[in-house]
Amino acid sequence: MDTRLTAEQDEIRRTLRELLRKRCDAEALRAAVDSPAGYDPALWSALAGRLGLPGLALPEAYGGIGCSATELALACEEVGRMLAPSPLLATSVLAAPLVLALGTETQRADLLPRIADGTLTAALAVPGPALTTALSLTGGNAGPWAGGGRAGGVQARQSGDGWRLYGQVDQVLDGHSAGLLVVAAHTGGFARSRTLLFLVAGDAVGVVRARQTALDATRPQGRIQLRDVPAELLGPADQDVLPALAGLGDTVAAVLAAEAVGAADRALERTVEYVGQREQFGRAIGSFQAVKHRLADVYVGVQAARSAAYYAAWATAHESEGAARSASLEGRWRETGGRVGGLALAQALEALRCAAGEAVQLHGGIGFTWEHEAHLYFKRAAGDELLFGPVHRLRDRAAEEAGLFVRGEVAV
């Protein structure tokens, strides 16, 4: 693995950092999260028009730039630094790869160019607590996580030549504002139970959406109610979507890890600035050895998490290139021997939690107030672990897949 960034990767980071510094300062961030959509449409248009960010990892044949998960992770690291609210995660990391991997050629040609140019946003409608299960990050995804029977969620039934969906999905990232919903639904009853993915227009008749109050306001979430809604099956009817979702999980984890590293690095940077200015007993508190030790521990944790996130992104891109012949996420999943993304995400979430906690503590009385941005990073750390963790389950799943424990004993 070559740890040096290419000139193109450096340019992506530099350009994106400059744009976000100008367009996503503290005042603009608060205005964006208080808006109905939960993000600034003008900033999203700039990210799409000037940088092509929504289509960064999409093939050029569908209007994308054709980069790998590495470049997408580097971009998300910069977005994470500023906690910039945008549909990037829901659209380009969760939904678009599924359309690319599972959709028919007609569906790809219709949807992906509009996603790439930023005119169409998308969301993966999976019950919030079940998202990591669906992506096989904290456990196998063969269970009834999409609904069915008394499990709630969304059910699908055939009606003539089409499908109808009914049910409710909570905690959908950008679900209240996305133009396209990729809905995971249960069908087949008890005897032939299976999970399928469906395409639903956000403004379709029978779709009722509302933004939910979330711990982390910079990651807006919505509640989606489907009341006998017409839906289009994603891909052919005989396609197994579970391996594709599991294959996507490692890429999602690598990108989320990079985003968390960006947030942790920014929280540490702001804390170092503050302790160099705040004085106590006639000297800056940053000069005290105890404060130096605490920040040194945070720095080591952030750098270790960055190394893990970069390796996970590189490994994911490398595996995608090696499995290009299979032309599907399912093929890559079967060729992958382990999941480095989940471990990197666990490391990054832990680093962010530590960095955000120290930021609140060392900022003193101002750190936990609504007026200061330190609490935003603390809420991002807590919210991400609720949505994509917890850390111990991510590590437990990785250990299980690596075969570290056999019949309760450590494998040697």
UniProtKB/TrEMBL annotation:
<feature type="domain" description="Acyl-CoA dehydrogenase/oxidase N-terminal">
    <location>
        <begin position="6"/>
        <end position="118"/>
    </location>
</feature>
<keyword id="KW-0274">FAD</keyword>
<dbReference type="InterPro" id="IPR009100">
    <property type="entry name" value="AcylCoA_DH/oxidase_NM_dom_sf"/>
</dbReference>
<keyword id="KW-0285">Flavoprotein</keyword>
<keyword id="KW-0560">Oxidoreductase</keyword>
<dbReference type="GO" id="GO:0003995">
    <property type="term" value="F:acyl-CoA dehydrogenase activity"/>
</dbReference>
<dbReference type="InterPro" id="IPR046373">
    <property type="entry name" value="Acyl-CoA_Oxase/DH_mid-dom_sf"/>
</dbReference>
<dbReference type="InterPro" id="IPR009075">
    <property type="entry name" value="AcylCo_DH/oxidase_C"/>
</dbReference>
<dbReference type="Pfam" id="PF02771">
    <property type="entry name" value="Acyl-CoA_dh_N"/>
</dbReference>
<feature type="domain" description="Acyl-CoA dehydrogenase/oxidase C-terminal">
    <location>
        <begin position="255"/>
        <end position="400"/>
    </location>
</feature>
<dbReference type="InterPro" id="IPR036250">
    <property type="entry name" value="AcylCo_DH-like_C"/>
</dbReference>
<protein>
    <submittedName>
        <fullName>Acyl-CoA dehydrogenase</fullName>
    </submittedName>
</protein>
<dbReference type="InterPro" id="IPR013786">
    <property type="entry name" value="AcylCoA_DH/ox_N"/>
</dbReference>
<dbReference type="InterPro" id="IPR037069">
    <property type="entry name" value="AcylCoA_DH/ox_N_sf"/>
</dbReference>
<dbReference type="Pfam" id="PF00441">
    <property type="entry name" value="Acyl-CoA_dh_1"/>
</dbReference>
<comment type="similarity">
    <text>Belongs to the acyl-CoA dehydrogenase family.</text>
</comment>
<dbReference type="GO" id="GO:0050660">
    <property type="term" value="F:flavin adenine dinucleotide binding"/>
</dbReference>
